[in-house]
């Protein structure tokens, strides 16, 4: 039967191929959307771990998480270091790591922080940051690089870099009067940390010592750094602070008390809750695309049934020969069902290959755009269920032409 079926389909190769490609493309669309959405969500959720709350200026919680964790967008405001130090003295806080944002280096975001950042900030399933080469900075003129920065710019431990004022390279915007020496390169994490450059907060403050309103007023070459008074390089403001609590039970009480802080308008954001807001928004769009994909799949199945029914009139001679050689109506009906089964299987195999290719390139784009590296499986259990459902629907829909063939007797075919 299989040999006869393949020869029959070969004689109608063009319309059969078009229906197969249509069904395959609709499955690729459905599964690619689902994979990319799940992969992006997984990558975002694994980008920061062990941080109970993020303290920053009062603003949208999602906005605060996006620019502090994922380096997307710009900070709307800063908070004073005095406020951060006051909060740090709270008895329910285990650790606090301040960060300052705003500058860049050849397109990569600069994160000014303290050396305990590499001790407390984790990613994935509570995995610690590991140095591939070198160690954390200990002086204000030292820097640590994420793995992507080192790889793409070909930097090593000992390399010297200069920072650009702001996030865009422009004439006169570079801090060309002070250089940082690379002391460490972090192991790849698959998170935005890979695309960041880490400086000491005091070194970051030193860079802006001669700047006012975004303009360089005087060069650091004109001053003796050793003559600076104690505390001159202590930052007056920071962008935000990552916080770890002694007990997660106190988390909601802690965030409420931060919002009620009377000396400055600040807020404390729980990263997981902020990201759930993001996925609730993205989920609506994702469901819309999924509905569209299922509609396209239904149209493709209808087209397949239409092709089989339309081809029955053109295959009268073929069917007559089969019947004259002893083929029963049941045999011909099964043959029609098997035809839809073959079309479905070919479409599924093609879809798996194409979805794998699409998600491979999507991984690279997500890494470039968002700094995350989601992992995609060759095929998941849920995808097998989807393929099975589509295959079953295809076979079920082919029962209509199969019944039509079964009800035709030999006299009708000969006439």
Distance between the termini: 25 Å
Rg, Å, rounded: 31 Å
Query: Can you summarize the main beta sheet?
Result: 7 strands, mixed
Helix content: 40-55%
The class by helix and strand makeup works out as alpha+beta
Protein architecture, described:
With 415 residues, the chain is α+β, with helices and mostly antiparallel strands. The protein folds into two domains: 176 residues, no CATH class; 229 residues, no CATH class. It is built from 14 helices and 17 strands. Strands 4, 5, 8, 9, 10, 11 and 12 form a seven-stranded mixed beta sheet that branches.
Summarize the structure in short.
With 415 residues, the chain is of the alpha+beta class. Helix content is 51%, strand content 15%.
Considering the chains and any ligands shown, give keywords for the structure.
single chain; 415 residues; alpha+beta; 14 helices; 15% strand; disordered C terminus
């Amino acid at each position: 039967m299989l040999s006869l079926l393949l020869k029959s389909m070969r004689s109608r190769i063009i319309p059969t191929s078009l229906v197969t490609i249509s069904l395959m493309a609709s499955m690729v669309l459905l599964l690619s959307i689902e994979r990319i959405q799940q992969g992006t969500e997984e990558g975002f959720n694994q980008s920061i771990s062990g941080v109970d709350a993020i303290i920053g200026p009062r603003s949208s919680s999602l906005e605060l998480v996006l620019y502090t964790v994922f380096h997307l967008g710009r900070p709307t405001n800063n908070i004073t270091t005095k406020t951060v130090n006051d909060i740090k003295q709270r008895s329910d806080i285990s650790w606090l790591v301040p960060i300052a944002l705003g500058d860049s280096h050849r397109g990569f975001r600069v994160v000014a922080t303290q050396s305990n950042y590499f001790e407390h900030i984790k990613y994935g399933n509570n995995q610690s940051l590991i140095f591939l080469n070198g160690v954390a900075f200990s002086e204000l003129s030292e820097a640590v690089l994420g793995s992507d920065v080192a790889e793409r710019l070909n930097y090593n431990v000992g390399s010297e870099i200069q920072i650009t004022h702001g996030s865009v390279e422009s004439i006169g915007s570079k801090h060309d009067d002070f250089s940082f020496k690379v002391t460490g390169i972090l192991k790849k994490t698959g998170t935005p940390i890979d695309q960041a450059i880490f400086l000491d907060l005091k070194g970051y403050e030193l860079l802006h010592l001669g700047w006012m309103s975004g303009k360089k007023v005087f060069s650091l070459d004109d001053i003796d750094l050793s003559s600076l008074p104690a505390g001159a390089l202590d930052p007056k403001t920071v962008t935000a602070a990552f916080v770890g609590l002694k007990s997660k039970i106190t988390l909601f009480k802690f965030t409420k008390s931060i919002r009620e802080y009377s000396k400055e308008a600040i807020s404390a954001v729980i990263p997981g809750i902020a990201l759930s807001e993001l996925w609730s928004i993205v989920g609506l769009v994702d469901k819309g695309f999924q509905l569209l994909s299922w509609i396209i799949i239904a149209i493709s199945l209808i087209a397949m049934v239409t092709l089989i029914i339309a081809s029955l009139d053109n295959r009268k001679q073929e069917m007559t020969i089969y019947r004259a050689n002893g083929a029963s109506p049941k045999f011909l009906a099964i043959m029609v069902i098997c035809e839809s089964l073959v079309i479905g299987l070919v479409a599924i195999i093609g879809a798996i290959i194409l979805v794998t290719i699409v998600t491979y390139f999507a991984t690279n784009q997500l890494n470039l755009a968002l700094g995350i590296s989601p992992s995609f499986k060759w095929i998941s259990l849920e995808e097998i269920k989807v393929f099975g459902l589509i295959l079953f629907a295809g076979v079920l829909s082919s029962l209509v032409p199969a019944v039509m063939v079964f009800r035709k007797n030999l006299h009708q075919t000969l006439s």
